[in-house]
Prior knowledge:
Blueprint: H1 12-15, H2 18-23, H3 26-46, H4 52-61, H5 69-79, H6 83-93, H7 108-154
Helix pairs in contact: 3-4, 3-7, 5-6
Amino acid sequence: MPVHVTDSAIFRDFYSTGPMRVIFDDSHLVQCWLDVEAALARAQAKLGIIPESAALEISCQAQAKAIDFEALGQGTSLVGYPILPLVRQLADLCDGEAGRYVHWGATTQDIMDTANVLQLREALAIISLDLGPLISTLTGLAIHTRSCWQRSWVL
């Protein structure tokens, strides 16, 4: 049974599209968080803040398919936000000492906000594509309407 109108088999496309649901679903959101964590580790390695080997391992392990979503949900309920339980899972996936460098110097808000920007960037690309034909149609209607009004003034 659907819990939200966007999950409804009947109404889902009234309020969203398939591509937008993919961008904003849990799996993709978690992957965005992981992408930010991996990018942070790579940037820190370039600056010599963390070992290059740790950044490589973090980047390799930062895959949403490896995350236990049930445990992530339980951890989120326990602490009130998802990044700490996610960081713990990612750190546990890493070999050797690499796990201790996950989320090094970052805040939960840094990761969540940056991931939201990644999602919004993807969503805006879809919106921009969808707006092209709409803008063309509206431009055509505006030109047609203007010419109709101009003719009515001449008569």
